[in-house]
Amino acid sequence: MADNLFHHICEAAPDGIVVVGSDGRIVMVNACAEQQFGYSRDELLGAPVEQLVPDGVRQQHSRHRTQYLSHPAARAMGSGLQLRGQRRDGSEFPVEISLSPFEADGERLIVSIVRDVTERRRLEEEREQLRMVADTERERQRIAMDLHDGIIQSIYAAALQLEAAVEDVREAPDAAVAGIDRTIDQLNDTIRDIRSYILDLRPARYGGDLVVSLEEMLAEFRANSLIETSVDIVPYLPVLTESQESAIFHVAQEALNNARKHSRASRVSLSLQSVDGLIRLVIRDNGAGFDPTAEVPRDHRGLRNMLERTGAAAGAFRVETDSGAGTKVTLELPIEPGEEG
Ligand SMILES: Nc1ncnc2c1ncn2[C@@H]1O[C@H](COP(=O)(O)OP(=O)(O)O)[C@@H](O)[C@H]1O
Ligand SMILES: [Mg+2]
Questions:
Q1: What CATH number does domain 205-341 carry, 3.30.240.20, 3.50.50.60, 3.30.565.10, 3.10.20.30?
Q2: How confident is the model over 89-144, as pLDDT tens digits?
Q3: Which of 36, 174, 178, 266 has the maximal Cβ count within 10 Å?
Q4: For a pLDDT cut of 90, what percent of the chain falls above it?
């Protein structure tokens, strides 16, 4: 009676249930698993569980399964990884899987509960899209305001000075010349502001050679900030994943932007070294420093972005700074040869 009830509960479960023997063969599935993977029960019973795993990760899966059998415990499978199941027709779908071991008739079995997260992923993506649209809108408003309050105002002030100079030209030519000289200086300042503003706006897309990109970034930084810079990049860069390279590039860019905008430093250095199984990026300035515990407005996202990117690349991120003592930004990423991202 209890067995029968339990059978009905398994059959009615909204998640797939796949029970696997210690030889990796499927010994039980419920109706939902049949539906998720597009096989009939007869086809699944006795089949290797790797059949439900995408072709490219079967070997890895089988290796992990053997490891699991020697240390079985109830846990999520591949936590932090984007797992996928493979249907009979070869198509794939995103899944979350929890595993638990149990013993029946002296055999060790693994129960996996398979949840199809296609819909949830879709909603997450939709939310991300909406967030990006809202961010773009906020950004446009900010640009409009910056142009109006900053740049237009200073050009307007220059025009006023020129008007005054025109009036002075006959009666007080010396004053007129002095006024025009001041205006030229102001316009040059404005040009510098606009340059630096454009640098900030330019989308930081990374593609290609990390070392070349970093060197170009530094050259541009030097030209636009007139701050003294030094670069020290390890001659033989270890093999990095795409997300690691992208994290290094973007953290370097944000940190340099901050040094240029906020630090009032006279010297900035960038170093990229590989040490003790790590690749370490350090950007240091000798400027004003800041209070890292101070609240930062929501739309100032530089430091937050750096932290996020570091997380995406499984690294560590530190900012060491103190008022008057400059700022040191460190990014460390593990180098694991042969490890799949
Ligand atoms: N190198 C630096 N020198 C001085 N202050 C800094 C530096 N980097 C960051 N800051 C401070 O931290 C704040 C937050 O930085 P960030 O998150 O990049 O936003 P934003 O640059 O848009 O202000 C800055 O507004 C600034 O006050
Ligand atoms: Mg910033």
A1: 3.30.565.10
A2: 999 999 999 999 988 888 899 999 999 999 999 999 999 899 888 888 887 888 88
A3: 36
A4: 57
238 neighbors 277 (Cβ within 8 angstroms):
no
What is 2-116's CATH topology?
Beta-Lactamase (3.30.450)
Domains 2-116 and 205-341 share a fold: no
In this structure, the residues whose C-beta lies within 6 A of any atom of ligand 1 are 254, 258-259, 261-263, 285, 287-290, 296, 300-303, 327
Distance CA 212, CA 184 (A): 36
Nearest alpha carbon, ligand 1 atom 20: 300
Ligand 2 centroid – CA 272 distance (Å): 20
Residue with tokens 């407005």: 297
Q: Rounded to an integer, what distance in angstroms lies between the CA atom of residue 140 and that of residue 170? A: 45
Q: Write down the residue that tokens 């340059």 correspond to.
A: 195
pLDDT digits (tens, 9 = 90+) for 239-272: 888 889 989 998 999 999 999 989 999 999 999 9
Position in ligand 1 atom list of the atom nearest CA 301? 17
CB 274 within 8 A of CB 287: no
Which residue, by CA, sits nearest to atom 4 of ligand 1?
263
Find out whether 284 and 269 touch, Cβ atoms under 8 Å.
yes
Q: How remote is the CA of residue 258 from the centroid of ligand 1, in Å?
A: 5
Q: Which of 199, 262, 267, 299 to mutate to test the pocket of ligand 1 (most atoms within 8 A of CB)?
A: 262
Does residue 19 contact residue 27 with C-beta atoms inside 8 Å? yes
Ligand 1: atom nearest CA of 285 is 1
Give me the residue spans of the domains in the chain.
2-116, 118-202, 205-341
CA–CA separation, 335 and 341 (whole Å): 11
